[in-house]
TrEMBL record:
<feature type="domain" description="GH10">
    <location>
        <begin position="1"/>
        <end position="324"/>
    </location>
</feature>
<dbReference type="GO" id="GO:0005576">
    <property type="term" value="C:extracellular region"/>
</dbReference>
<keyword id="KW-0732">Signal</keyword>
<keyword id="KW-0119">Carbohydrate metabolism</keyword>
<dbReference type="GO" id="GO:0031176">
    <property type="term" value="F:endo-1,4-beta-xylanase activity"/>
</dbReference>
<keyword id="KW-0326">Glycosidase</keyword>
<comment type="similarity">
    <text>Belongs to the glycosyl hydrolase 10 (cellulase F) family.</text>
</comment>
<dbReference type="InterPro" id="IPR001000">
    <property type="entry name" value="GH10_dom"/>
</dbReference>
<keyword id="KW-0858">Xylan degradation</keyword>
<keyword id="KW-0964">Secreted</keyword>
<dbReference type="InterPro" id="IPR017853">
    <property type="entry name" value="GH"/>
</dbReference>
<keyword id="KW-0624">Polysaccharide degradation</keyword>
<keyword id="KW-0378">Hydrolase</keyword>
<dbReference type="Pfam" id="PF00331">
    <property type="entry name" value="Glyco_hydro_10"/>
</dbReference>
<protein>
    <recommendedName>
        <fullName>Beta-xylanase</fullName>
        <ecNumber>3.2.1.8</ecNumber>
    </recommendedName>
</protein>
<dbReference type="GO" id="GO:0045493">
    <property type="term" value="P:xylan catabolic process"/>
</dbReference>
<comment type="pathway">
    <text>Glycan degradation; xylan degradation.</text>
</comment>
């Protein structure tokens, strides 16, 4: 089988990519598979570009770990997806402790977004097409599952305007980057997806820069939504692009041959959905091997959510992706 990114490029000018994280990069078996543009054309840092990692103290920026990921992407010609700029989790306490009024928090957001986006501007330098597609998850997980705005420090201080503040600063800092809002449970037709569409429409009506929506896609084996394509089309109809940004499909352990077969079908279904809508620019798995998946620690009793097992063997899920492509 050819590499998944090779297949994605040929099948529809899309990319196949993965999240990765700094501690994993000392594992040379891991990096020997990761650093192959034919397999992965895009990289997302799993943690090292988040606020707590990048700006742990006000105005103090620590880019070292993020730079390692950016350099890895750049040196292999891979697109970099910056992740993420404004999110309610993995925030340093100096941001969350309600120290700031609206004016102060606006400046805090502007400084953070401007400095980080400017630092990674135009990376990677590998290929022009890829450069153009350099993307940022500017806003991460702004919505509750019922479609209302999440009441985090940003919303509670600034209302919905924090989204405009961040997007505007990101556009000014890197006019070529695709600016995204990323969330989960917006992959299927329902009130949260409708709320995201309404948010996009209101930003567009106010001339706020917004290029795309990230559909995280943390699914469960046998429970992949049936309305993926219909839902994607609704986002495409808004005149924006979108991406599958954090795909994994977890199962209740222990894994069985039957569950692995269902997982193959499920990966096929998701990748095939992206291929069927031209505005879907690519698919990113939230790491590619079970060895480094975030699932077991976050969803106790669940695991085996990625296309490679923890001994780096390709699972049936890998074939499901390859067949779709
Ligand atoms: C996860 C990382 O994978 C973990 O290592 C970390 O402990 C918590 O965050 N949605 C997102 C990602 O947008 O940033 C999250 O990543 C997974 C859920």
């Amino acid at each position: 089988v050819e590499g998944l990114n090779y297949l994605a490029r040929n099948a529809g000018k899309k990319y196949f990519g993965t999240a990765t994280d700094n501690p994993e990069l000392t594992d040379t078996t891991y990096t020997s598979i990761l650093e192959n543009y034919e397999m992965f054309g895009q990289i997302t840092p799993g943690n090292s570009m988040k606020w707590d990692a990048i700006e742990p103290e006000p105005g103090v920026f620590t880019f070292t770990d993020g730079d390692v990921i950016a350099e890895l992407a750049s040196s292999n010609g891979m697109m970099l997806r910056g992740h993420n700029l404004v999110w309610y989790e993995q925030l340093p306490s100096w941001v969350t402790d309600n120290n700031y009024n609206a004016t102060g928090l606006t400046e805090v957001i502007q400084t953070h977004v401007t400095t980080e986006v400017a630092h990674y501007k135009g990376q990677p330098y590998g290929q022009i097409l890829i450069h153009v597609r350099h993307a940022w998850d500017v806003i991460n997980e702004p919505l509750n599952d019922n479609g209302t705005m999440r009441e985090d420090v940003f919303y509670n201080t600034l209302g919905t305007s924090y989204i405009e503040i961040a997007l505007t600063a990101a556009r000014a800092a890197d006019p070529n980057a695709k600016l995204y809002i990323n969330d989960y449970n917006i992959e299927y037709v329902g009130e949260k997806s409708t709320a995201m569409q309404n948010l996009i429409k209101s930003l567009q009506a106010a001339d706020v820069p917004i290029d795309g929506v990230g559909l995280e896609s943390h699914f469960i084996v046998g429970e992949v939504p049936t309305t993926l394509v219909e839902n994607m089309q609704a986002f495409a109809d808004l005149g924006i692009e979108f991406a599958i940004t954090e795909l994994d499909i977890r199962m209740e352990l222990p894994e069985t041959a039957e569950l692995l077969e269902q997982q193959k079908t499920d990966f096929y279904t998701v990748v095939n959905a992206c291929l069927s809508v031209s505005q879907c620019v690519g698919v990113t798995v939230w790491d590619w091997t079970d060895k480094y998946s975030w699932i077991p620690s976050t969803f106790p009793g669940y695991g085996a959510a990625t296309p490679w097992d923890d001994n780096y063997q390709r699972k049936p899920a890998f074939d499901g992706i390859a067949i779709a492509l």
